[in-house]
Structure formats: C-alpha cells, structure tokens
Fold this sequence. Notes:
Radius of gyration: 23 Å
Helix content: 40-55%
Oligomer: single chain
Distance between the termini: 36 Å
Largest sheet: 2 strands, antiparallel
Strand content: under 5%
Number of strands: 8
Amino acid sequence: MKKKKILNKIAILFGVVLFTGCSDFLDNESDTQKQGAESITTIVDLRNTTANLYTAPWFGFNQSSYEVCDGRGNNLLADATSSTYANFAGFSESSSTAGLSNFWSSLYNISAQSSYVINDYAPNVRLHVNDEAKINACEAEARFMRGTAYWYLAMVWHDVPIIESPNSLVLSPKVNPNRFEDVIQFAINDLEYAVKWLPLSDTKGRVTKYSAEGMLARVSLTAANYAMGNHFSQDYLTRNAIASNTILAQFYFDKAKALTENILTEGLSNYALLADYEDLFKVQNNNNKESLFSIQVIPLSSVYGLGNTRQQSLAGSTTLTNGLNAYGGSIFCGYDILHLYVLDGAKSRMRGNIFVATETYNYLATHTAAKSWTVTNEKCNIKKFVVGSKEDTAGYAINNNSGLMTPVMRMAEVYLMYTEAAMGINDVTSDAIAVDRFNKVRQRAFSLNIADYVAKTSVTRNDLFKERRMEFFMEGLFWQDIVRRSFYDMDWAKKYLNNKLKEQDALTELTNYVWYHYTYNPVRLASTGGFTNSPRASTVVAREAVHNLGSATYVHAVGANCNIWALPYPQVDASKNPLLNQEPVKFNF
C-alpha cells in the first residue's frame, strides 16, 4: 500500500468525521514489509513507522482472536457443527483449522514489524538525531507491541520460537520453540522497557506508560499463576535469584499490584471507566478514556487489512445494517455464558454483549421506520462489535470495515487485575481497596438497573473468574483465563472443561454446558426464567474422550488430540519448520 493512498484516506476521514479520536498518527505507510532503514532518519519518520504497528499487522489477530479464545472458552455457539467456532469449542481443531494460521501469522507479523523498529529504524535515527528520549519512546512502542504479541502466542501455543531478528530467520528458518517461561520473560523484558520510556500521554490511540503498566501487569499475573503451580524451572529461579516458586509467585503478584495501583492513582487523569458499558463499543467513542490500547483501523477504507471486519462476521441481519454484509446469523452466545448473564442480572453489560429477545436499541437501525432495533430472535446473536449501519455510525460503517477501533486492554481489566493481585495466592480477599475496585466494575454493569446492584464485601477467585468472563466476553481473553487457572488448579480446570462442576451443583454459575442449544425470551418464557425447560444437549463428543485433560504438562505435543493446553502449530509453519515439533529449548537472554 502506497503512502499517498493512505494519506488520501486520512484526508477523507478528517473531512467527514472529527469525533473518532483518530489523528495524525495514522499518517503512515501501512506496509507490512520492512522498509530500508536508511530512509528512516527523523523522529517524524520513526513515529510514522511505529504508527503502522497499530494497524495492518493486527488485522489477522482482529479477525481470529475471538474465534480461537472465545470459541475454546465455550462463549460461542454455532448452528453448523463444521464451523470454525465448533472446532475450537469442541477441541477438535487441527493444524489446518481456519483461523489458527491467521492468528499465529498476525502475531509473528507484529513481532517482526516491531523488531525492525527496534533493530534497524531506531538505531538509524540515532545516527541522525540527538534526542534519545524521543527515539527510546518510539522503540518502547515497538517493544509494547512485541511483548503483547508474545503473551498471546504463549497463552495459545505455550512454547513458541522467540524471534528477536527477522533477518536471522531468513538465513536460518528452522528454529526450535522456546520454553513458555522464557517467552513470558521475553515479553516482560519488552514491556518493562516500554514502562520506562513511553510518555505519560500521547496522541489519542497511541500507547502510554500506563498502557505498558497494564500489559505488564497482565503478563505478571500470568507468571504468578504459573509459579503458583510450581512450574518455573530451577534454571529460571536461579537466573532471577529467587529461592522458590512460592516466593516467585508473591513477587509477581506484588509487581502486578504496584503496576495497577499506579494506573489507578496517577493514571486517572488520562484513563477512567466509561459510565455506560454499551458506550464502549460504539464507533462514536473510538479511543475513549477507558481504552489503554486499541487496534487502530482506517475508517472508510475498503483496502484489505486496514479495516475492522468483526461486524460483518457477527451481525445477524442485513436489515439491522441497512444492507451491509451480515454473516453472523447462525452464530450465537453459548448457553452457559447466557445463563451466567441472566443469573448475574447486570442489564447494561448483557445488552452490550448479546442481543436478547425483546430488548430495544435506540441507536441501531435508525434508518428504519421505527428508528430503532428490537430483538426478536430467541437465540442470542452477538451484540459486541456490531455497530450498525452508515446511518447509525455517522457514515463510518461500510462493507468489510465497521470503523471501530478494537480494544485490547481496557481500564476495567486494570481494576480487576488489582483485585486479583491483592488476592494473591489466597482464594478470597476482603481488602477494602481491592473489593471496592472489583465493585466499581460490577456497579457499571448494572447502570441500567442500579436498584438490583448489591456491593460485595469480599471477592473470591470464582467471583473474579465469572466477572472477567462476563466483562471481557468476545474480547479474546477467556481461554487464557482458563489456562491461567489450570496452572495452579488443574483439577478444577479439568472439571470445568468436562462439565463436571454441574454434578456438584446443577445451579452453579460456573456450569459449563458445552454446546447446549436453547431458546431464551424473558417475556414469553417468564414462567421458566426465560429459558426453555430442557435445553437440548449437544452431540459434540465429550472433551475428555477427545483430549488428554489429565496431562499436567504444557509442552506442545504433536497431533491435535494430545494436549489441549497447547494448540497445534499451523500446518504451513510446521511443514516449513519441522523443529517446531521438537522439545522447547532455553532462550539465551
């Protein structure tokens, strides 16, 4: 894509709409290939190059992360059992399953483009400009992106190759995967650099020091959970001068608590929770104050890779979108997440995430005679990321591009991470600050029915697990939450994934009804709580019969049916690099 064409699109953007929070940082070359380092000589050049890191490299991630992570987390139900969602929900994916390669390739593209900035562009600018702080800030943006990408790679594939220099991969394309603990450490190192050098504020849409603190807290909690399960090797402990996994777990919990505390005190002049959950995913509120990091797209661009395709994948009706593509008519939220929303009772959050029969949205279908959209389908299509028609979005939404900047980290996660960090290795916390921050997220979820909100006086691990699932539904985080819990509580994770918890308590909010079909209408079926009396059980094979859920190892295994904790490497990559299927090796820091 030529820079001139991108500049034309930005000029059109600012000529049409000014409320989006986009600005001149999108004045960049959206080319996913390396440029000649010698052409990058000024801070402006370098800033334009780092701007690309927010856009095209994330396109495949934006298409596939919810398929993989919400699919595996049983947040999705599809009528067609051969669909991508069905493969991930049923743990029947293979190395050639649609979406897997897209997700993987996008994350390594992010890593590669970031590494070019770190290894080539920033060093070249240092030869021409004497402003180390600004150059380091640009490098910090790149390290933020690369560290984030490696966290996702580690959580989905566990052990993966760490590629510091894409040039070296060209010369030697066959490389072993590195150990999970080293991938996590690599991400931590990048994010610590980002925390040190990113500014406290920047152009809307760009990451800041607080963004990096939030992402570093997310990775630190992952490391804490891993240490809780006694998984870090003696080599890792020795290298970090830590006596035991128990001490290491507390170290990472303390780290996460300090990072989130700083955001929730010093960062509140820049970031805050929005008052209404539904406002989070409206085009008009792009790059809002709750967003610490969002994938940036070029609104009104029809160029492949520069838009947001989530609406057309998830929207269930062209009537709603006024003729824009809507391919999500047979994709619904899973029964157990709907069941959880209903039992929880927070109306604003439920409306923001799923379409429930009888609910009316006065900001959708404004092109119709009713000037609104009333839901009639009694299976719940996905609401999140569905922004509506051109009329609903001030002209923004077009085919293949809703114009929505996709949030990757929000302030709500920071609040809940603080509570988790304060809880530490315990199963409950009554710490007043930690409970208050958890309650702030819950209170916002009840903004439409605040009389039903009841503040908690303590927070359990199960409370956090449920709250994160409901809050971040379809944001590509729930599978990682299950994996993190398995690190230190494998027995619970196995029971959860194999639907055994309902044998202990049929009404538990943690019941995992794998692919139960349902009908839900809170008015027509009021006498049965809104649900059909007997949800039809799925024919999907029990997960325990398909996978070895009893395995306590997380090392990637060859074959789709060997180890659920590490997904298959994409077929094309494993064919080119057979060393992927070898044991992971230590990374040389």
